Amino acid sequence: MKQKAGFLLHLVCGVLAVFLNSSVVKAEDPYKFYTWTVTYGTLSPLGVPQQVILINGQFPGPTLDVVTNDNIILNLINKLDQPFLLTWNGIKQRKNSWQDGVLGTNCPILPNSNYTYKFQTKDQIGSFTYFPSTQFHKAAGGFGGINVYARPRIPVPYPIPDGDFTLLAGDWYNTSHKALQQSLDSGKSLPFPSGVLINGHTSNTFSGDQGKTYMFRISNVGLSTSLNFRIEGHKLKLVECEGSHPIQNIYDSLDIHVGQSISVLVTLNQAPKDYYIVASTRFTRRVLTATSVIHYTNSHTSVSGPVPAGPTYQIHWSMKQARTFRWNLIANAARPNPQGSFHYGHVTPTKTIVLANSAPLINGKQRYAFNRVSYVNPDTPLKLADYFNIPGVFSLDSIQTVPSDGSAFVGTPVMPVSHHDFIEIVFQNNENSVQSMHLDGYDFWVVGYGSGPWTPAKRRTYNLVDALTRHTAQVYPNSWTTILVSLDNQGMWNLRSAIWERQYLGQQFYLRVWDPVQSLYNEYNIPSNALLCGKALGRNA
């Protein structure tokens, strides 16, 4: 018996020695360092001089080109006259909602001060964006692309393209962001946009060689309007969607809703000349259009003739297209194992949450709400209030998990959920406009779209085999969208409308993903450089 115990002790010590030695030898994931300065500038994106937000003098801001698992150390210096934050749209911030950059998790960076974000692109690939989360700064710019490339040893399910273009498209207002915010604060809605921009301009030129294939990473960075994207005479092969590898269907054009990102491969297989690239508004009475050019390097012929028209069919066409976005079950994403190795359709949800969006008047002013509650930001970020056990900052019971009758009201709702739960969220849109819903900290399976009111019987229509995962899902007018979420990321996470007027006026709340066992395995500690404000001032981080 003693001999056996001695052998086991020797074995355990040997395993520990190997583990410790491998830990020492193993190289740490790379670090990338950035310093960004946020300033105002005067530009004329639509021909009218206006104040815009620049990052390092650029509009849009610099593109973050990084690799899976890179550690990002980004010092952000605020030279504006207002507090400011950036949020990293689609970056999951694993175990680290401290770095999410929204007012529920972070104190804003005061004028003439700085904050250093420290986060990792842990187990992610794909096309994402960043943008300001404070006040109505997003209407002035401050946004940019985030491209997360696969590690060299992890194959991607398509040939490496010959080039890579980032296209940030979105609606734009000639009115200043401060004037737009004042209008919203007075109880008015936003007017119709003034135009559409691609990469901050009404026209750009992208050059490529005939016969070669290029990746176009396209994001809708606008405030309110769905877009349709197309390239004259060329097919679009969908190869990535917000970190997922889909079945590689071929499209003539693609609808991209507010906050969403996709990547397509385009082969320059036409006669050598210049061709239109088009982004135009969808589901609007008046169609706004931005055009750019794909220029064959051996072309001697400029673009000419009418701009290619977008789809004439509306909601039904778009919903049918959305249902064709399906997961490639045998392809890997950031990890070497196939995406389809997690059989989400076999997991029974532990909770169902039905969220009805609405546009109520509260105290005579326009507001927006989920399940009758219109969110207001407190002076103290929810994450700090939770960490320091500060009472009276948020409510855990003001928002219900199903819609109910009654008047809308303002509050600071947080919905408690348990770490490692698997939940079903139904977005019920009883309004006449397309909605776009985003969840920080996660991607989720978009398992169903349907018209009319959702009922439990609609579950029979769900795609429980190869639904795509993404971080932002559209909800069509008088329709519903269902997502499934595996709550594997502890923290305080913002669930919001990606349509920025609605977010600003209350259509958001937070999920508190909680585990009674507190450990660094589940969530990182508060950063040593965390900014403190509100009732957290004077506390020790």
Automatic annotation (TrEMBL):
Keyword Cell membrane: no
Residue ranges of domain Plastocyanin-like in the record: 38-151, 164-298, 379-516
CDD domains xref list: CuRO_1_AAO_like_1
Gene3D superfamilies tied to this protein: Cupredoxins - blue copper proteins
Signal peptide per UniProt: 1-27
Any one GO MF annotation of this record: oxidoreductase activity
UniProt entry keywords in alphabetical sequence: Glycoprotein, Signal
InterPro entries, alphabetized: Cu-oxidase-like_N (IPR011707), Cu-oxidase_2nd (IPR001117), Cu-oxidase_C (IPR011706), Cu-oxidase_fam (IPR045087), Cupredoxin (IPR008972), CuRO_1_AAO-like (IPR034273)
Listed PANTHER family: MULTI-COPPER OXIDASE, OS07G0119400 PROTEIN
Similarity section: Belongs to the multicopper oxidase family.
Name of this protein: L-ascorbate oxidase homolog
